[in-house]
Amino acid sequence: MEIRIACRKSPLAVLQANKFINAIKKKYGKEIKCRLIPMHSAGDLTDKDLSQIGGKGLFVSGLESALVSGNADVAIHSLKDVPAKLNDGFEIISCLKRGNPNDVIVLKKNGPSTIQELNDCSKIATSSPRRKAQWKIHNPTFEFVPIRGNISTRISKFLESDLDGLLMAATALERLNIQEHHYDEFNYQDVVPSVCQGIIGMEIYLGTISQEKRQIIQSVNHQNSFNSGMIEREIIKYLDADCMSPIGVICRDEMIYLDAFNKEGTEIYQLREALASNELKPALSPILEKLKNDRVHELITK
Known about the structure:
single chain; D-Maltodextrin-Binding Protein, domain 2; 302 residues; 33% helix; alpha/beta
């Protein structure tokens, strides 16, 4: 049997797809063959601000088309890029073990070595509304500059510029083994990351996948990472938010950490709440009720 795997063409996306392939090989040996189908996505083909042209869902739509047409059996995603509201027929059915969820700031070797050493008017590169709002509320004099491209491209642009820092996900740097630059890393409890940051998710289309292939894809699931990811995605879905909204959420050690901001980075809402249950609905019900009462949706859409 062959599993056909769609992924983006970026080095990180291909590496993550190969992590899935390695998990299949480890479990099934030569019994299952895997074929990688790297694809350009609409998000890869533009340098425009994603928030103005459809958000990070642009990284997903092309891969989903391959699932619908039957040209691929599974699409491999950085789950933080996948909209919480999937179109009918699509489903995230498994996840690999979560990587480092933290954010980092990349700093130049001849400059400051920590965030505390940056000047008040430092120029920081990020295209994430969440990171911009999160940092601006604590560093209102910083200037934030948009930056696009894959991991290596962004780092190259940063090093060739007059920028002072570049905000990124730690797990991307670790997976690509990029070590030649200086980083300052932030604990998820202090700088709450994007929903599902560090999680690799496997998506299928129910109309084309066979039951046997579905079971194989589900068999490599890391249950704790899957549970955390689904909880985080349900919170975002409830708030009618997406990966371009100024909000960070992580489920870790049976706790929910949530930081929400207005887009200008002048107001902040924080929630630190223990999960009351291991089951999705009972665990989330009191948290969602609190978010409703505290009008968090109104804050993140300001």
